[in-house]
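Async update (no meeting this week)

Hi team, since we skipped the sync, here's where things stand on the single-chain job. The sequence we agreed to prioritize is pasted below, unchanged from the tracker. I ran it this morning and attached the output directly underneath so nobody has to dig for it. Comments welcome in thread, and please keep replies under the output.
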Amino acid sequence: MLRSHATYLFLLLIALFSSWNMPTAVTAAEPADPASTFAQGVAYFQQGSFEQAAMSWMDAARQFEQKGQVNEQIDALIHLSEAFQSLGHYTKAATTLDVALGLSAGPDRVRERVIILGQLAHTVFALGQSDDALKQIDEALTLARTEGQAFGMASLFNEQGRMLISQKRLPEAITSFSEAVRLARETDKLLLLVTATVNAATAHLRDGNPKKAQDLLNQAFEESRSLHASHDKAYVLISIGVASNDLRSHLPLRHEALLRRAAESFQAADAIASRLNDQRARSYALGHLGHLYELSNRTADALILTRQALHAAQQVNAPESLYRWEWQIGRLLKTEGKIEDARLAYRRAVATLQPIRHEFIAASSREQGSFRESVGPLFFELTDVLLHLSASQQNPDERDALLVQARNTVEEFKSAELQDYFRDDCVQETRAHITPLETVSKATAVVYPIILPDRLELLVGFASGLKRFSVPVSAEQLTKEIRTFRHLLEKRTTHQYLHPARQLYDWIIRPLERDLKTNGVHTLVFVPDGPLRTIPMAPLHDGTNFLIAKYALATTPGLTLTDPRPMNRENLSLLSVGLSESVQGFPSLPNVEDELGNIQKLFGGQVLMNDQFLVASMERQMQEEPITIVHIASHGEFNSDVENSFLLAFDEKLTMDKLDRMIGLFQFRESPLDLLTLSACQTAAGDDRAALGLAGVAVKAGARSALATLWFINDVASSTLVSEFYTQLQDPTLTKAVALQRAQLDVMQDPTYTHPGYWSPFLLINNWL
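Output:
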């Protein structure tokens, strides 16, 4: 058994070394014994030199293995995983811990197994597998209780609480932190006690109890005085400072006291980091202190501190903090009116952020909020600067070039956000096929809304070029109107939706009308962002007609995510699957059988209905036949968490990963999947991230286009509209967008279905040709 683990570890180390960019400064000779190598790693780690620490612990693990010192080898692997986590390499950390877990089998290594399981839960959570992570925490807690390991339990409760905070399960998180504090106090583990107390303060703040949060932070700060100077103490003080600053807006009467506490914490952290030569910790302490000065409108002092933070981050090659301080410098320079200098700083921040592994960014966003909340403002602030620079340009070519840069900046964010949602590189692979959409057809305009805090910007691509329209509506006001519109669209017994339908038309379409008419536009392709993804554009109303009566419509999650080649209609091959029966607690869809029958009459192909619609059967059909259209008439749900997004098959839920593996095969065939239809799916109202999942389904699945619904609609109306869409699709002179437009207009003629709640939720996503 040990030999097999040794072989696996050897292969693991080869793999880790092969992908490692070793800092050139590390040229010291390797210590003669593994204990010295291990101690060297500890020293590097305390200085914030995580790359060097990882190299040392890799060597130590290998040396311990050669000497047959299994317990020491496990310890080295656990430390190595911590270094990988600190660098954002969570997959490598998980792989390392898997090896350590295998070595820890046996009754005499329970303590090590508890530690490994806790660390593994942390890495799994960072990789987005929150349910699995919490299960691993529970497993580790059960083992620790059995062995009476109070300190191990305290660490696990602290980790559990952090996970529960990110899931907004705040009362449960508070209970976990309370247990962690109690057990840490019982076992006299002061560092863990202070850490869990700060985390509990964060939970209480988010749960609406800022006074309790401040009491806990004061307690944590006082107890931290007894900690010896260390890397860990520096970061505890930084977390106290950040939490104290977050409290300021919730306790205005204690504003100055909290400001002093935050500053004191950051200064103390900087002093410790300087003494230890821990440049990473110095970077964070100085950068956050600079942010305090920024908030106090002391821009010059803030710039000095932020540049010092930047220098510290550069010394240890720490891009995860470097991009933050470049970003902060951009904000400060913009405040000083130095717009061109601000642009350069923002651009450096984006350039620094891009190469960072998406694991690191995704993990940090799970700690700080959504991906959009954590890094989105950087991209939109740069976009704002570019738009300001464009407006000041007299040269038309330079003005247009800046508009393109602004649009491309948002496009970078959209691609990164979609990649974060699906947790893989499918988006980057798709971006390899880029064609400017506005050049595909002179009769098509691409509408690119950019929602900024104080206004809505519309960048509209015509065949003749890009044009900018600025609408003075705040993001808050626009979002409120969108939420109201979506809610009222689903109330099919009233016409209350008309007021927001007209208001949104006035903001989004009215400014473009003259140019749309001048350019002879018949099709609008929207690239919606944020809350705009949660509504269809078809029912926007000009006071006389719906938008769909004037234009064929399509949507795409990003300009660079769409392959605009026309659909090949000569050799269409259809696979239709669906459920008319009630399955797995979901209601029956009685009209699905007629829907699939009608489609089969038009295009032929294989039909898998009810108990024939098994995941394995569908996969087999797609492997054996050159399918070009897949039609799924079954319940589907898109959630803010991709793990909870699925399409319902008879035997199981078809997750996005399974759909990707199934349909992704078509990317390697001469005939790609032209169309994926989901005729009964839904997203939660007001859930922008769930709508992102729906918008990105074609990208994820490798399909050129998708037809899907934002919310579940009347079964008869859905079947009628879908059948008409396929009927129109038989005409090779019509684009898919026009086919959908005609189907929607046809359903509207039925007095029963005139309300847009029945016909408007259908979206044509990506390729509209």
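Quick observations from my side:
Residues 163 and 705 are 36 Å apart (CA to CA).
The longest strand covers residues 444-452.
Reply here if anything looks off.
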